[in-house]
C-alpha cells in the first residue's frame, strides 16, 4: 500500500480521533504554557506589564531580572529574549533589555541584549527579526573569531517603529520615532524620525517633510480610516455584503 504523511488512507476513525486529540492537546499546551504576569512559569522578569503574553513555546530566555516588559505586549512563539552574555550573571541594578507598552515581536525573532537595548512603545516587528547589541571582533588574525572578545554598543528603537520580516538591527543602531525598516534590511547607525530604510547595509529611501509630505511621494493613496462610531459588527456585515454574489434581476415575460 502506498501511503505518505499527506494521504487520507490508513487512518480511519482512530486516526481522526488521534488527530483531534493531538490538536486539542497542543491548544491546551499553548494556553497553559503562555507566560503572563499572572502565570510567569518560573520566569522572574524585572517587570512584566498587565496584558503582556509570551506565546508558547518560548525561545531562549535568560537574564530575566534585567528584562522589563511593558503592558499589552505580544511576544510570538520561539522568540529569544536575553540579557547578558550568559545566564546567572549579576548585571547590576539597572535594566538591560526594556520593551515599552504595546510592543509586538513576531515569531522566531531574537533580541540579544548584552548591553542595553531599549524598544519604545507600540513598536511592531515581523517574524525572524534579529536585534543585538553585540558584534564579534576579528582584530587578531591568528585567533578564531568566536574566541575574541566581542564589541558591545547600546541599541535604541524609538516608539511607533515598524521592523519588517528578517531585518537585522546591529549594535549602536539608534532608530527615531515611527521609522519603517524594510524586510531584510541590515541597520546600523542613526536613523531620523519618520524615515524609511531599506537594503544591506540599510540606507534612507524615504523621509517625511512637514511641508512637502513624504519625499519621494508615496505611490499609493493613504487608506481611508474607519469612520468614528462604526462597530465591529457593522464592519463584519459590510464585508459579508461586499463578498456576496450579485443577484441577477428577474425579468418578467413579455
Automatic annotation (TrEMBL):
Matches recorded under InterPro entries: Hexapep, Hexapep_transf_CS, Hexapeptide_acetyltransf, Trimer_LpxA-like_sf
Superkingdom, natural source: Bacteria
One Pfam entry name: Hexapep
SUPFAM superfamilies found in the cross-reference section: Trimeric LpxA-like enzymes
UniProt KW keywords: Acyltransferase, Repeat, Transferase
A molecular function GO annotation: acyltransferase activity
Homology family: Belongs to the transferase hexapeptide repeat family.
Name of the featured protein: Acyltransferase
Protein's organism: Streptomyces beihaiensis
Amino acid at each position: 500500500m502506498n501511503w505518505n504523511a499527506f494521504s487520507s488512507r490508513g487512518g480511519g476513525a482512530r486516526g481522526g480521533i488521534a488527530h483531534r486529540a493531538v490538536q486539542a492537546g497542543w491548544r491546551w499546551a499553548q494556553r497553559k504554557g503562555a507566560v503572563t504576569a499572572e502565570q510567569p512559569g518560573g520566569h522572574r522578569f524585572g517587570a512584566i506589564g498587565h496584558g503582556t503574553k509570551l506565546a508558547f513555546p518560548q525561545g531562549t530566555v535568560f537574564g530575566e531580572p534585567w528584562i522589563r516588559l511593558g503592558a499589552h505586549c505580544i511576544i510570538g512563539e520561539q522568540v529569544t529574549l536575553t540579557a547578558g552574555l550568559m545566564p546567572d550573571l549579576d548585571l547590576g541594578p539597572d535594566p538591560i533589555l526594556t520593551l515599552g507598552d504595546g510592543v509586538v515581536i513576531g515569531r522566531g525573532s531574537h533580541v540579544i541584549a548584552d548591553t542595553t537595548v531599549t524598544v519604545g512603545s507600540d513598536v511592531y516587528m515581523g517574524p525572524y527579526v534579529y536585534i543585538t547589541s553585540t558584534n564579534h571582533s576579528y582584530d587578531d588574525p591568528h585567533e578564531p573569531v568566536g574566541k575574541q572578545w566581542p564589541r558591545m554598543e547600546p541599541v535604541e528603537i524609538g516608539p511607533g517603529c515598524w521592523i519588517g520580516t528578517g531585518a537585522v538591527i546591529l549594535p549602536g543602531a539608534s532608530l527615531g520615532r515611527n521609522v519603517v525598516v524594510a524586510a531584510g534590511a541590515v541597520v546600523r547607525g542613526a536613523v531620523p524620525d519618520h524615515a524609511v530604510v531599506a537594503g544591506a547595509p540599510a540606507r534612507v529611501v524615504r523621509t517625511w517633510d512637514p511641508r512637502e509630505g513624504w519625499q519621494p511621494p508615496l505611490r499609493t493613496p493613504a487608506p481611508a480610516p474607519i469612520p468614528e462610531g462604526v462597530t465591529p459588527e457593522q464592519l463584519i456585515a459590510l464585508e459579508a455584503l461586499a463578498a456576496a454574489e450579485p443577484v441577477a434581476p428577474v425579468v418578467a415575460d413579455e
